[in-house]
């Protein structure tokens, strides 16, 4: 759920950079008319920018309010890059043109920012980078958050034909200065006539194209009264007459560049782009570059968020890049804790390495830390060769034998000669890395992920109140067993149904609450009916606030065939709820006989789709459930104590901080030597990244489609992405099959089989 209260610029977080010869690359122009009420937050947004090569020209358009005039005098003293100029009142379009004409000769771009609107801290840097790498584009803009008077997000697929009929854009965008002046700027001298819409049409009329960056970069304040938009509506007839006349000059469809998009096809990996490195002043902190896939609701992603939220900000700075297309529902939370760049939203993949090089220089990166980014793993040899002295670390959450024959454990081990330290979430995974993947024991260590013992505290929750809220009737006070997970093959929900069927034969004093959704939910429904479990199983669907489920539970159950160390086990014990779990991953390292039961997992991972569970697999669960329910009070006493002993998030963060400090203070000379040796093979390292880009091409395209489907309800695309193929029947079928195989965790295996079949067909 998007939080509209988390507006950028509420605080001033100015990044201090080394003094360099000042040459602005961007001119920010603000038309100011009696604008003292909101401008402080706009000032913060400008000063908080991660790209410092700007000048800000505030044009006082004949303000009459004394407080507003005095405010301008204060503003000009804040920063030497701010310049205030005054003129007689002439309206918004004329004022913006006036400011643009005052632009420094070194500035390449213009951005028009009203005195009450807001921009994301990385707005200028991302927009600058995308226009520097998309030379054929004239302007770049982001999706829009409307706030205050009305709250909604404005995410529109750009279409030049549609733009003639409806303005899909807003005034704030980074515009190439030469293109702005080629069409004579805003040019209009009438007031409140949709001058920004008319400007975009003028640019389109001469064949100029935009870049749509796919993140919430611009916040538009929807004032109920007195806004320029409101005045334009009141002058609608004249405004539409102007834009219609301009729109008629657009003779051809103009394709926009729109992210995310699958754009890679064997192009040369670029190592540098023309972005000035504004070196941050060394503040004595450890600067960590984190590479993660995305910011979604998941266990690994929660680990990332917990780490950056609680790490000691007096010791560490976190700079983060993400590498997988997503709608990123947790981005706001990440933005609040770190400087975040989602590479998929503004850059072609061939420039990703160059942008990371830029970040390493700009932020004086001390440690590179990868967690679950496949592209990050492909870049590690290159980064070690480029920066031998920078330690590289990673965190592996579990090994997945059904995914790339080991998953991230294999990816990590493949480039282990370049990794200084690999951290894992349990001793079982540590042992596998050492014994199976032959990793150096000194370079692998377990750091348990932990749980928020404050949030997951049973004293904070009223069981009866939650039961009522969830519409759960339990008049006979039956024991509540909870099953909280994604309803997928990995979690073995059909085994749970067979366990409950057998348990029902022995006792009737329980209800199993299933909190989750997933591809196997329909099969679960059928088994509930077949086994007559309607009075014993309650399907709640996806529950975001899982702490409420633990609060009403007497026990939780985990039947998974694969886990690292399940977050549900941590959370359950923190809430004083014992756990029955399959003996997979590191479950037995947390769940002991005082707080629950660990049951043997008799099924091999390769048999994940075999649902014919035998008696010897089922009965140990029955015995464990009975044992716990018959001695519940004894178990409950020990559960929370187990967490507080050393499995809290604070313990995890403390351990992670020690790992970062230790790796930095005790640099691995062998890894540094490896880096210097690899310098001779930089081209080989870049080719490894190329190979990964190509191998993951279909998956990346599929992820782009998922983003567009969520935003627009259909697959969208352009010439660069060749999405038209996916509008055909065979293309739609292919997308559906990719989606199904990914959910079943057999996508890579299916791809491998198809490759072999194509090879056989060609040879015949």
Secondary structure: elements and pairs:
Blueprint: E1 26-32, H1 39-47, E2 54-61, H2 66-78, E3 82-87, H3 92-101, E4 109-112, E5 118-119, H4 123-133, E6 137-147, E7 152-154, H5 160-165, E8 174-176, H6 177-182, H7 195-205, E9 209-221, H8 228-234, H9 236-247, E10 257-258, E11 286-292, H10 299-310, E12 316-322, H11 331-335, E13 339-342, H12 352-362, E14 367-370, H13 374-386, E15 392-396, H14 408-414, E16 421-424, H15 427-435, E17 444-446, H16 463-469, E18 479-484, H17 493-506, E19 510-515, H18 521-530, E20 537-541, H19 546-552, E21 555-558, H20 567-574, E22 579-582, H21 587-590, E23 596-599, H22 615-630, H23 632-644, H24 649-665, H25 669-678, H26 682-695, H27 697-712, H28 729-743, H29 747-763
Parallel strand pairs: 1-2, 1-4, 2-3, 6-9, 9-10, 11-12, 11-14, 12-13, 14-15, 15-16, 16-17, 18-19, 18-21, 19-20, 21-22, 22-23
Antiparallel strand pairs: 4-8, 5-9, 6-7, 6-8
Helix pairs in contact: 7-9, 13-25, 13-26, 16-19, 17-22, 20-23
Descriptive labels:
globular, ten-stranded mixed sheet, 764 residues, 41% helix, seven-stranded parallel sheet, 23 strands
What does this 3D model show about the protein?
47% of the residues are buried. This protein starts with 25 loop residues before the first strand and ends with a helix. The model is unreliable at 718-726 (pLDDT under 50). The strands form three sheets. Strands 1, 2, 3, 4, 5, 6, 7, 8, 9 and 10 form a ten-stranded mixed beta sheet that branches. A seven-stranded parallel beta sheet has the order 13-12-11-14-15-16-17, sandwiched between helices. It is 41% helix and 16% strand.
């Amino acid at each position: 759920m998007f939080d509209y209260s988390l507006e950028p610029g509420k605080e001033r977080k100015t990044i201090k950079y080394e003094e360099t010869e000042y040459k602005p690359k961007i001119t920010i122009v603000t038309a100011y008319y009696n604008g003292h009420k909101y401008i402080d937050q706009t000032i913060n947004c400008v000063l908080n920018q991660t790209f410092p090569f700007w000048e800000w020209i505030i044009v006082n358009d004949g303000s009459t309010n004394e407080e507003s005039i005095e405010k301008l005098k204060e503003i000009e003293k804040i920063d030497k890059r701010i310049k205030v100029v005054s003129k007689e009142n002439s309206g918004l379009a004329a004022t913006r043109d006036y400011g643009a004409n005052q632009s420094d000769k070194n500035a390449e771009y213009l951005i028009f920012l009203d005195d009450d609107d807001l921009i994301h801290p990385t707005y200028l840097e991302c927009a600058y980078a995308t226009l520097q790498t998309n030379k054929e584009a004239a302007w770049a803009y982001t999706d829009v958050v409307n706030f205050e008077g009305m709250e909604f997000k404005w995410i529109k697929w750009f279409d030049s034909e549609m733009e003639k009929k409806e303005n899909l854009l807003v005034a704030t965008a980074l515009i190439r200065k030469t293109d702005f002046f080629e069409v004579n700027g805003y040019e209009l001298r009438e007031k409140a006539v949709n001058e920004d819409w008319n400007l975009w049409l003028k640019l389109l009329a001469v064949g100029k194209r935009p870049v749509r960056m796919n993140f919430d970069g611009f916040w538009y304040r929807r004032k109920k009264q007195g806004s320029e938009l409101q005045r334009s509506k009141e002058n609608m007839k004249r405004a539409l007459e102007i834009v219609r006349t301009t729109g008629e000059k657009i003779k051809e469809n103009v394709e926009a560049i729109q992210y995310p998009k699958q754009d890679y096809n064997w192009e040369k990996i670029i190592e540098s782009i023309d972005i000035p490195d504004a070196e941050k002043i060394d503040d004595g902190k450890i600067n960590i570059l984190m590479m993660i896939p995305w910011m979604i609701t998941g266990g690994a992603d929660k680990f990332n968020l917990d780490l950056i939220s609680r790490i000691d900000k007096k010791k560490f700075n976190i700079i983060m890049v993400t590498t997988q297309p997503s709608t990123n529902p947790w981005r706001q939370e990440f933005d609040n804790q770190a400087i975040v760049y989602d590479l998929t939203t503004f850059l072609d993949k061939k420039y990703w390495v160059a942008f990371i090089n830029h970040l390493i220089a700009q932020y004086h990166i001390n440690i590179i830390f990868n967690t679950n980014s496949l592209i990050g793993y492909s870049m590690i040899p290159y980064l070690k060769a480029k920066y031998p002295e920078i330690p590289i670390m990673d965190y592996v959450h579990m090994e997945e034998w059904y995914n790339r024959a080991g998953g991230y454990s294999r990816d990590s081990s493949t480039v282990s000669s370049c990794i200084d330290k690999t951290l894992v979430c349990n001793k079982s995974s540590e042992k596998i890395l050492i014994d199976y993947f032959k990793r150096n024991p000194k370079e692998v260590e377990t750091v348990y992920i932990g749980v928020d013992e404050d949030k997951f505290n049973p004293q904070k929750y009223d069981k009866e109140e939650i039961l009522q809220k969830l519409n759960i009737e339990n008049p006979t006070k039956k024991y509540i067993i909870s099953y909280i997970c994604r309803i997928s093959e990995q979690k073995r929900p059909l085994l749970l149904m067979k366990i409950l069927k057998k348990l029902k034969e022995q006792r009737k004093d329980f209800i199993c609450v299933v909190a989750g959704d997933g591809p196997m939910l329909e099969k679960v429904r059928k088994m509930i009916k077949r086994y007559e479990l309607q009075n014993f199983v309650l399907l709640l669907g996806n529950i975001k606030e899982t702490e409420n489920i633990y609060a009403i539970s007497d026990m939780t159950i985990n039947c998974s065939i694969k886990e690292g160390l399940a977050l549900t086990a941590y959370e359950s014990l923190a809430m004083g709820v014992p756990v029955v779990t399959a003996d997979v991953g590191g479950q037995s390292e947390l769940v002991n006989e005082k707080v629950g039961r660990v049951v043997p997992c008799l099924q091999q991972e390769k048999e994940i789709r075999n649902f014919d569970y035998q008696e010897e697999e089922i009965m140990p669960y029955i015995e464990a459930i009975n044992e716990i329910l018959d001695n519940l009070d004894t178990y409950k006493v020990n559960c929370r104590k187990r967490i507080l002993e050393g499995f809290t998030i604070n313990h995890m963060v403390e351990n992670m901080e020690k790992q970062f400090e230790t790796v930095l203070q005790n640099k691995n000379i062998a890894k540094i030597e490896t880096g210097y040796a690899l310098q001779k093979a930089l081209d080989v390292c870049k080719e490894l990244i190329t190979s990964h880009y190509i191998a993951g091409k279909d998956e990346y395209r599929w992820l782009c489609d998922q983003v567009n489907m969520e935003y627009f309800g259909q697959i969208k695309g352009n010439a660069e992405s060749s999405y038209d193929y996916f509008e055909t029947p065979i293309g739609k079928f292919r997308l559906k099959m990719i989606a199904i195989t990914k959910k079943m965790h057999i996508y890579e295996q299916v791809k491998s089989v198809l490759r072999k079949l194509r090879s056989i067909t060609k040879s015949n």
